[in-house]
Amino acid sequence: MEPFLVGILVPLGAFAMVFGIFYLGITSRNRERMALIERGADPTLFEAKKTGNASSLFKWGLFLVGIGFGIVAAYFLSNGGAMDEGTAYPAMIFIFGGIALIVAYLWQHKEDEKEAQKEIKG
After folding, report:
1. Is the pLDDT of residue 20 over 90?
2. CA-CA distance, 19 to 26, in Å (whole number)?
3. Mean pLDDT score of the chain, rounded to an integer?
């Protein structure tokens, strides 16, 4: 097959595959919901809950700050000669990003416990 034709068919096929996955996901979800409604399920069951938006933003912010610290740490490690640059950047990004997610989890767990205590008391 000619390289020009392959250069067109591969991206076109990838786009068609992604479109097909989304289309099938949306139509199957719609069919499932319609079947549940026909059987008498409550339509409010399908409404998305809007809780946890601030905590999600906090988690993402903390994660991105952790990645930033990882990049800075990798820069110092690679320029100081302590680690190879190809190893330092992925390692520090994953380590600091993971630490940030753990801190976000611990913070969220602590906030959930405080909220549960408030509900019990009052």
Report:
1. yes
2. 11
3. 84
Q: Cα(120)–Cα(22) distance, rounded to whole angstroms?
A: 43
Tokens of 104: 């976000």
Alpha helices per DSSP H over 2-84: 3-38, 53-79
Given a contact cutoff of 8 angstroms between Cβ atoms, the answer to whether 97 and 60 are in contact is no
Give per-residue pLDDT as tens, 60-113: 888 889 889 889 888 888 888 878 888 888 888 899 989 988 888 888 889 888
Asked if 71 contacts 93 with a C-beta cutoff of 8 angstroms, the reply is: yes
Are 63 and 104 within 8 A, CB to CB?
Answer: yes
For residue 81, which phi and psi values (nearest 5 degrees)?
85, 5
Distance CA 4, CA 89 (A): 36
67 and 96 Cβ atoms separated by less than 8 Å: yes
Residue with tokens 């068609």: 16
- Cβ 74 vs Cβ 89: under 8 Å: yes
* Three-class SS state of 44: helix
